[in-house]
Design goal:
mainly beta, seven-stranded antiparallel beta sheet, 49 strands, disordered C terminus
């Protein structure tokens, strides 16, 4: 840790305080925070910094990891500006395999004081051979020497303030292990507890001995976690499929609430009114404590899961009807939620509401829903620039000069991109099939009526486009009458990362500098792209050569 008496040293110390000392209440400057999924399995959480070809992750324990593009599946990121509020309890990640691997179910546990015996820790989960990681913060009471105790069957590990206090990752019968650490009074410290269950009875209890007090289970009021979420992403992620069985590529979007009645048109562009299916996923924050009833009104089939428990199962054709399912919830706690719906023929209806103690039946509101991050790029390619290496820079083209084309990306980012790096300019959304056909054409433009003019681009602005044809000479078009301009060849070249943004860009990057201050992308056509860091939502690792398609 940095030491010294200068004002500069104090600032550096405060900036590093989050993991190297007592938990600071605010961050000095914006930083990127998020979750990281590895290709070999496993999910990590912490502060994220991309340095050229490597992801540097500082976990909640203070442990630092270097993750290569070859090992990275995806990093979902958001800009944390110190305004994240703590939520009570510890974030529990439940793995269906003993080595903190396999499928993950997440929930918030108010305390760690479980004696499952031979029962599973939750519905639809194995009773044996599973593992759990609890992450969050613990608030001390007074300054002094604290003893932490974990009583468990099978293996257990505990870190407090980045320091390993207990490390007994072995098969064992139930017994207690302890560790001691000095803490300041009324400060928050990062805490992580890991546990695996191999067979037989399952139990795990987290306790402490506070100075001048006796040993006790750590109470929920002393535990909290900072959810890795974007406050603005309220709603649920809706994955829309053609056909009633969720097959094929999905069109994804965030739906603020589930309250739809499709009569004459399909749910998204290009869909019919018959034979489609939708899966909504994310988290729901309980409005009250006690039994909460979920009401799914649909035409046709529906299934609903809350907290890994299926509470509604009406997977059959039917006219508009309401189905109900009940689950006991704790006010303010977030639970995983998923709703599956399919439409057969005629009218299409999907609505999700709830009721409970002192809660009249109402739509589940946007403020209580938190969307799962999108899993795939949109299948509809937005307006923007296609770079020669296969990157797509979404935005509105505003003009050009002798060397560059200007594009407006998002609300504030204005970029100039060298024409030598650009393969095409796109003005209206195209589906993936039409987009692929354009890559094989000669230089020219596609007009709104579908005609293709072999020509070279002369000038472009927001109102007018001028092309030079070897047959027709110079021709001017209204910008609204042109769909696509091909400048040169483009294809999906090799890359290390795919960077995805709020505005819809998909940038194939060989090199990436990304943290809370900057987002500098060197794409695989050697085009340098400078974005606002808050514009980036996810970074995917790419297999060594996926130029033939993912």
């Amino acid at each position: 840790m940095h030491s010294g008496n200068s004002a500069f040293g104090a600032i550096v110390l405060l900036a590093g305080f989050l993991w190297n000392g007592a938990m600071a209440e605010i961050d000095v400057e914006p930083r990127l925070r998020g979750t990281v999924e590895l290709k070999k399995g496993g999910k990590l959480e912490g502060w994220i910094h991309f340095d050229r070809e490597v992801l540097l992750l500082t976990e909640l324990t203070g442990n630092e990891r270097r993750i290569s593009a070859a090992d990275l599946k995806v990093a979902h990121v958001h800009l944390a500006d110190g305004q994240l509020k703590n939520s009570p309890g510890l974030q529990g990640s439940y793995f269906n395999e003993p080595g903190l691997a396999g499928l993950i179910t997440e929930r918030v546990d108010g305390v760690v004081d479980f004696n499952w015996g031979r029962m599973a820790p939750m519905p639809d989960f194995p009773a044996d051979n599973f593992s759990v990681r609890w992450d969050g913060e613990i608030e001390s009471i007074i300054a002094g020497s604290y003893s932490f105790h974990v009583s468990s069957s099978e293996g257990v590990r505990l870190w407090v303030n980045g320091r390993s206090l207990i490390d007994r990752w072995v098969n064992q019968s139930e017994r207690e292990h302890s560790g001691i650490i000095q803490l300041e009074g009324r400060q928050r410290y990062p805490i992580r507890l890991e546990y695996f269950e191999g067979g037989g009875d399952a139990a795990v209890h987290l306790l402490w001995t506070v100075p001048e007090s006796g040993k006790a289970v750590i109470p929920g009021r002393q535990l909290s976690h900072r959810p890795v979420r974007e406050p603005s992403r309220n709603g649920l992620l809706g994955s829309y499929h053609r056909g009633s069985n969720f097959k094929g590529d999905a069109v994804e979007r965030i739906d603020r609430a589930i309250d739809f009645s499709w009569v004459d048109t399909g749910p998204v562009a290009g869909f019919g009114i018959n034979y489609f299916s939708v899966r909504w996923e994310g988290e729901v924050e309980a409005p009250v404590s006690g039994p909460v009833t979920f009401h799914a009104t649909t035409d046709d089939g529906v299934r609903v899961w809350v907290g890994a428990e299926m509470i509604i199962d009406e997977w059959r054709p039917r006219e508009a009807a309401e189905s109900r399912g009940e689950i006991v919830m704790e006010a303010g706690r977030r639970y995983p939620i998923r709703m599956d719906y399919y439409q057969a023929t005629k009218s299409a209806l999907a609505r999700l509401s709830w009721s409970g103690p002192a809660l009249e039946q109402q739509l589940v509101p946007e403020k209580n829903l938190f969307a799962k991050p999108p899993s795939k790029p949109p299948r509809e390619i937005s307006p923007g620039l296609v770079l020669k290496g296969g990157s797509f820079l979404a935005g509105r083209v505003t003009g050009m000069n002798e060397k560059d084309i200007q594009i407006s990306c998002g609300a504030t980012t204005q970029l100039q991109v060298r024409k030598q790096n650009i393969g095409a300019v796109q003005f209206v959304p195209l589906n993936a099939g039409t987009f692929a056909k354009m890559s094989g054409r000669r230089s020219g433009c596609v007009l709104r009526g579908g005609d293709y003019l072999v020509a070279d681009l002369v000038s472009i602005d927001e109102e007018e486009i001028e092309m030079r044809s070897p047959v027709l000479g110079r021709r001017k078009f209204k910008a609204e009458d042109v769909r696509f301009i091909k400048l040169g060849d483009f294809r999906r070249e090799r890359a290390n990362f795919e960077v995805r943004t709020r505005s819809g860009s998909l940038l194939r990057a060989n090199w990436l500098m990304l943290d809370g201050k900057r987002a500098l992308v060197k794409d695989n056509s050697f085009c340098w792209i400078n974005l606002a860091p808050g514009e980036v939502t996810a970074v995917y690792g790419i297999v060594v050569d996926d130029s033939k398609g993912q």
